[in-house]
Structures are given as C-alpha cells and as structure tokens.
Write a structure and sequence with these properties.
single chain, 318 residues, alpha/beta, Methionyl-tRNA Fmet Formyltransferase, Chain A, domain 2, 2 domains, seven-stranded mixed sheet, elongated
C-alpha cells in the first residue's frame, strides 16, 4: 500500500470553481503529477482565446498540463497511464470520463460536486438551486462512475442559501468548502475507512447547462420566483427583460409582497432610488440594472439617464 501522504494525484478541472481544490492539493503532502483541463477556448466579451483558470493555476505552480480535445483519445489515455496515478480528483472538468480513464488510477477517481446529491446532478448545480429558491445546498465528494454524477457518496458538507445571495457568491463559498472536505476524504478513502453510500436514483434531479434563453423574465411569475432567477443567473447569463426593443439586464432585486391592480411587467414607480415592477403576484423592486452594452448601474444613476414612465410594460422579448 502506498502511504497516504505520498499519493500520486492527477487533477481534472477547468473553471474558477475548481481552483481552490487544486490549490488545496498543491499545498497538501500529495504529489500532483499532472493537471488535466479543457483546451484553450475563446472566453469573455472579446472572445479572446485564453487559458482556463485551472490551467493558469497549474502553470503558476509548475505542474504539467494536459488538454485533450477528447478523453477518449488514445494518446491521452496512454499518457495518463504512464503517470501511474494512485488517485484522480475531478472538480467541474467539463467532459464525461470514459470507463478506461476511470480504471487507470489505483484508487479510482473522485469528484467534488457542488450539490447535495442526488439532487442537482449536472453542469449547473449551484445556479439551478438558487433559481429554484432552495434554502440549502452543499458539496458532495463521490466516486466517479460512467453515469453522470451518479457514483457512491463518500462525504457531504452543507450550507444555507440566504434569500439575497447570488449564484457566484454561493459557488465561491462551496469551492472552499469542497476543497477542505476533499482533504479529509482522501485519507479515509486511501486507508479503507470509507467505501461510499449509493445514491437514491429515484430522488435525483438534473441541473442542465445554462443558456441565454434561461434568462428571459416571465413577469407573470410571482415576484419571489423572478428574484430567484435574477440572483441565480448572476454573473452569467443574467436575467433580462425588454422595454420595446431595448434590452435590460437585471443584476440585483428585492421581492415585495404588496401589489395593486396592474398588469404583470407594468412599471409601478420609477423615481429616485425606486424602480418597482408588477409581477404575477407581488412586486419586484429592481436594485441594480444594466442597459445592454452599458455598465451596471444603481437605480438612481440609471433613471437619471434613462427615464421610465409608470405604466410602461416590460416584456420577455422585444
């Protein structure tokens, strides 16, 4: 048996969420023999081809980086096998690993997943939980199997979701929680003190990848649901609404229960610091707004340059 503190680890990850886990491994006694991440791709508003956050962190630490276009690639699998890893650690890598890849590390592969499984399997667990108005989330360390996020659970940690937190705030915290949880799970796994609890597949829910279409605000929804959409889609792809042909991105909001007789989407008040919009039930108070192509603004700053008329109606499309 290889001593726990000398385990050879291959890390798989791509976005910012995965960086705290990689950092934790780099600071641990374990030997990170390589980092696998997605190929460089166009990112950001200018669509400039850049390295992933994980690649940047790995290169800064002087670690070898592998970027296979497909994990089925025979050359990649051969290179992975030659590394003779004891353990693979996955955190938001972005590709489903093949059966062959899963069998290469002696102890298999484990995943740091940002939900309490079996709920919110898939690519966007934090965003979907916030959008759904969940009041609790967490991190699960699980064994990686061929089925999506369906492996036996090795450890979990929970945290509340407060009423005004955005998905990026929750995700940043979960990234740190997951990194700490991983470092307590690896010794237990290596020493045979944990084998995993099977997931209840009948209780599973799916958190699909986000698209811009997810951000269309339906003003017939209750105010609370619209508020959850706005904070759940921050910082991307954002919830948005239209006034005529003009598109406005909503960054921050507050749900209010009061409502007078008004059509959903109708602007009830637009003066000073107050921008109130009728929902199907209740009122959405917009706190921070961004005209498309401009920067985010407070309501007072926005209304100074973009006066709105009470009675005008926001729509889901132009």
């Amino acid at each position: 048996m290889v001593a726990t503190d000398s385990l050879r680890v291959v890390f798989f990850g791509t976005p910012e969420f995965a960086v705290p886990t990689l950092d934790a491994l780099l600071k641990s006694p374990y030997d990170v023999v390589a980092v696998v991440t997605q190929p460089d791709r166009p990112r950001g508003r200018g669509q400039k081809t850049t390295a992933s956050p994980v690649k940047a962190a790995a290169l800064a630490a002087g670690k070898p980086v592998l970027q296979p276009t497909s994990v089925k690639d025979a050359a990649f699998l051969s290179e992975l096998s030659d590394l003779a890893p004891d353990l693979g650690v996955v955190a938001a890598y972005g590709q489903i690993l093949t059966e062959r890849a899963l069998t290469i590390p002696r102890l298999g592969m484990i995943n740091v997943h940002a939900s309490i499984l079996p709920r919110y399997r898939g690519a966007a667990p934090v965003h979907r939980a916030v959008i759904d108005g969940e009041i609790e989330t967490g991190v699960t360390i699980m064994r990686v199997v061929k089925a999506l996020d369906a492996g036996p659970m090795l450890a979990t940690a929970r945290r509340p979701i407060t009423a005004d937190e955005t998905s990026d705030e929750v995700e940043q915290d979960l990234a740190e929680i997951g990194a700490r949880l991983l470092l307590t799970t690896i010794p237990a796994l290596s020493e045979g003190r944990v084998t995993g609890i099977p997931q209840d597949d009948s209780a599973a829910t799916y958190a699909p990848r986000l698209t811009k279409d997810d951000g269309r605000i339906d003003w017939t929804w209750p105010a609370e649901r619209i508020h959850n959409l706005i904070r759940g889609l921050h910082p991307w792809p954002h919830a948005a609404t239209f006034l005529g042909s003009r598109r406005f991105i909503l960054h921050r909001s507050r749900p209010l229960r009061d409502q007078g007789p008004a059509a959903p989407g109708a602007i009830l008040e637009a003066a000073g610091d107050r921008l109130l919009v009728a929902a199907g039930a209740g009122i959405v108070e917009i706190v921070e707004i961004q005209p498309e192509g401009k920067r985010p603004m407070s309501v007072r700053e926005f209304l100074a340059g973009h006066p709105l008329t009470a009675g005008s109606i926001f729509h889901a499309s132009p």
